[in-house]
Design goal:
3 domains, 45% helix, 440 residues, 3-stranded antiparallel beta sheet, 16 helices, alpha+beta, 12 strands, single chain, 15% strand
Length: 440
Amino acid sequence: MVNFYLENRTNKKQEAVIRVSIAIRGARLVTSTGYNIKPADWNAERHEVKPRKENWKKQTTYDINTALGNIRRHFDTYEKDHGEVTEEELRKEFKAFMGRVEVKEETSDTAEEPKEPTFFGRFDQFIKEESINNMWVPSTKRALNVIKGHIEAWNPETSFDMLTESVLSQYINYHRTDLDQREVTVEKQWRYFKWFLDWATRKGYNTNTAYQRFKPKFKTTDKTIVFLDWDELMRLYKFKVPKTGKKVKLTTYDGIEYEKTVGLSSALDRVRDLFCFCCFTSLRYSDMRNLKRSDIVDGVINLTTVKTHDKIAIELNDYSKAILDKYEGMVFPGGTALPVISNQKMNDYLKELAELAGLNAPVTQIYYKNGERIEETKPKYSVIGTHAGRRTFICNALSMGIPADIVMKWTGHSDYAAMKPYIDIAQSEKSKAMAKFNVR
């Protein structure tokens, strides 16, 4: 029997360790799973994390529950295949399954040769080596660990030799059907998997090249770029947040009136400043989060970006300077220039803020899932996120006529291909601007 529960104590992040109890024929092991979650985000009845949650390590509900499910399935099978076991045997089996390999001292000259790492052991090696060699940002490392978890859940006995084109097709279908993922996500998952296989082939760990001949087709479409035009940006920048608890009357984009109660106004006020600062500087959330006063000299932001390690210089304008001046003299944790909060929390507040500010223009997103074309139209506030700040800067800068090569110096983009979607939007905005001169 396998059960999961939370420790009574919480850490500095207000999260508790998820522990596992494994009981097989009188032997019982209680140990940590290596995952933490806030008590409020734990479903004690179902022994799993509640939907749409995330811990401070950015491990999502899916990541954690998949790992817990893998543990349960492994030891259910282990119980069927074994007779009497001891607690020590359970402990060793758990460590081996979780990759916590113990180093054993050799007791004789005839000690066994170390075993060749498994497929998943090589995956761990890939993540460890490449993350160091290529200076991965944390999100890349998390993404590769998620891929590894998907493969383990699909087939825990996966090996290089078994990956024929037919088997790889089954893997792609697993993402489409069992995981019910969008085509763009399935394509991204395959690119990550192939990245690992290319690495393993170069290293000589894999000699099965069937994956190189495997060419799956994916139905995808250009992603809708969510940004604020200048009027929307000014509306948000000048928006005065109502007091906490006040009921505000709002209207949907199709004219239906409704009421919304204002949340924590002080937090919404700061999030407005943080987001608008990104809109006026082109900074990603990660760079804004790390920005120090010492990075700003003579009205110019000088920093090395977190994601791409590019050195950029961004001149302050009246808007970005006004936001910095508002917080001048204040001391924030980590010595940051602005009162930053977590990306997840900021996204939550930003959606509420944009709703209160009336940013409800309809945004249609088109995607494919399992071959089916799906269109979804939602109000802009519900699909806006922190990265929309950077997109807002680019689209408005290009619409103002600032040359793309100048914008690229601010944003750190290295080629025009990455700028093309924004240039297309700028042309559309330019046409709409000219239409204002037409006689009505």
